[in-house]
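dumping this here so i dont lose it
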């Protein structure tokens, strides 16, 4: 009997084998939990295709009586979400690039070099990690204003990406610490300098960590509310999607269907980034658990 035939028989035996009661219960529980997890997003998509009265009159029903696609056109064109989308994209991409470069460089130094005060520095990092955002918003605003970057894209990017970024830095430090030193020694023998070793040897090897940092930073920068709100108070044209959601709340009521459509629009890039980078993200988390 050939190997192909044996493999076919093995798969047939697995298909014909009855699952145990424990497996059935596990599958059912996972399906229920998955449904509960997905339902809010499904309801949001459904609400974006309903009128405001239908949202509250249809209860938990997901299928709209008549899809109202005009909600998306109204959110994108009339409310100005096209501008908010571009602002958010520029700010998020800039923040991700700044955080990746800064965190990777700092993590490389912490992970590969020993120096006086290293443990104290890490301790200070960990302490600042638990500070709420509200405690730092005032000094960040003052520093940005002194740099004449308030009410600009660059100011928001600097405010979001120039902080401690403790979690990202420690992720890179832990990964770089595990890499063999022979990699750097071989590169130095070939005449490579510090920056060449970092950008052409070490950083490419840390791609799983980079994917994780990109996803986490993208989610943070895309959804952050407080700092963009403070930085764009006098420039409504620089609002991000999160801040722009307040446009749907007026003195005479709230445009719930338009807000739902805008929320769906804002979620599309987040889902796309996670789908593209999910494998590397899972690999990095699995590696962290093994360590």
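and the seq i came up w/
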């Amino acid at each position: 009997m050939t190997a192909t035939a044996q493999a076919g028989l093995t798969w047939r035996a697995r298909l014909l084998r009855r699952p145990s009661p424990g497996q059935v219960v596990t599958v059912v529980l996972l399906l229920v939990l998955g449904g509960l997890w997905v339902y809010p997003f499904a309801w949001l998509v459904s609400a974006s295709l309903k009128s405001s009265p239908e949202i509250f009159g249809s209860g938990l029903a997901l299928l709209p009586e008549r899809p109202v696609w005009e909600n998306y056109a109204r959110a994108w064109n009339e409310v100005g979400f096209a501008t908010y989308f571009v602002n958010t994209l520029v700010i998020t991409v800039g923040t991700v690039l700044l955080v990746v470069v800064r965190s990777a460089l700092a993590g490389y130094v912490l992970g590969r070099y020993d120096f006086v005060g290293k443990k104290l520095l890490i301790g200070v990092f960990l302490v600042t990690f638990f500070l709420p955002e509200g405690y730092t918003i005032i000094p960040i605003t003052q520093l940005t204003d002194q740099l004449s970057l308030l009410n600009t894209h660059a100011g928001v990017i600097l405010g979001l990406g120039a902080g401690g970024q403790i979690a990202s830095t420690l992720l890179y430090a832990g990964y770089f610490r595990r890499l063999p030193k022979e990699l750097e020694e071989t590169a130095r023998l070939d005449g490579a300098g510090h920056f060449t070793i970092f950008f052409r040897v070490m950083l490419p090897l840390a791609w799983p960590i980079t994917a994780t940092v990109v996803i986490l930073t993208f989610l943070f920068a895309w959804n952050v509310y407080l700092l963009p709100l403070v930085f764009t108070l006098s420039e409504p044209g620089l609002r991000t999607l999160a801040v722009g959601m307040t446009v749907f709340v007026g003195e005479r009521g709230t445009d719930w269907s338009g807000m739902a459509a805008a929320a769906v629009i804002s979620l599309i890039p987040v889902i796309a980034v996670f789908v593209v980078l999910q494998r590397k993200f899972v690999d990095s988390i699995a590696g962290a658990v093994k360590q």
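The longest helix spans residues 256-290.
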